Each structure stands twice: as C-alpha cells, then as structure tokens.
Amino acid sequence: MTEELTYIDAVIRISLAVVIGSIVGLERRNKPAGFRTHALVSLGSALFMIASLLLGQEAAEAGNQVYDPSRIASTIVQGVGFIAAGVIFGGGRRITGLTTAASLWVTAAIGLLVGAGFWQVALMGAVATFIVLYVFGLIEPRITGPQKSRVPTAKRRDRAGDG
C-alpha cells in the first residue's frame, strides 16, 4: 500500500505539473495550443489524478476495498484526445496540428504521472518531449526537405460538368 496523499503533497504535485507541462508548452508557444494550453492540460490531468487518489483514500477509510484510481486516468486520455482533435486542421493537401495534438496527449500523460507522484518519470518524459519537438524540429527539414506535409488526399471531382 502507498502512503497517504497529504494536501501538501497535492500542492507540490500541482505546482510541478504546471512547471513540467510548461516545459513542453515552451516549444509550442506559436501553435494553436501553446504554452498556456500545455500547462493547463498537465495541470488538469494532475488534478484529476490527485482527485482520484484522494477519493481512493476516502473509499479505503470507509472500508471500500474495490476502488480503482486508474479508471479516472483512462477517461482523461479520452478527453484529451477530444481536445487534441480540435487542433488538427485539414485543407487541400495539407494537414496541420498533428504534432500539437500529439504534444497535448503526451502532456496529459505527464500530468497524470505527476499527479500520481511519479514526478521523476514525468520530468524525463517532458525533457524527451521537448527534445522531440525542438531538436527534432531543427533536424527534420534537413532529413525530409522543405516540404513538411506529404499526406496524400483524394481529388474532388465536380459532377456538374459530367453530362
């Protein structure tokens, strides 16, 4: 059994979630979901995880041994997927926002880890995410060339001209 989560621990975890989520958000500052959004996704995920842990403690104190804190975490993954889908835009032969959506998803995982008390893993995840976003962002044009979007799309026919 793990130690009881105190309110001081919760405050520290909330603060860490904002700081660590902001690390990822620094690189995304000029994107549809930037610095503040990433900090908030990490914060929100941590708050949900902390709430889940506190509810588990309350359930255990009341004699309920069947509480599963991972259930709330799984719904966070779904909810963040919905938010992330909102930053993906398609137009013509170009799709944008996929990297931002993925970074929101990763930031939610970082917040969950912090909320659960695994801040060291969350910090390493944030550093790895920042490397992927920033360093790989510098390297990618040299590897793939200047054209970033290579997603094939179907061409639309105008049926008005088909007799």
UniProtKB/TrEMBL annotation:
Family membership noted in the UniProt record: Belongs to the MgtC/SapB family.
Lineage of the organism: Bacteria, Pseudomonadati, Thermomicrobiota, Thermomicrobia, Thermomicrobiales
Principal location listed in the UniProt entry: membrane
Highest taxon listed in the record's lineage: Bacteria
InterPro entries, alphabetized: MgtC/SapB/SrpB/YhiD_fam, MgtC_SapB_SrpB_YhiD_N
Keyword field: Cell membrane, Membrane, Transmembrane, Transmembrane helix
Protein known as: Mg(2+)-transport-ATPase-associated protein MgtC
Pfam family, one: MgtC
GO cellular component: plasma membrane
MgtC/SapB/SrpB/YhiD N-terminal domain location: 15-139
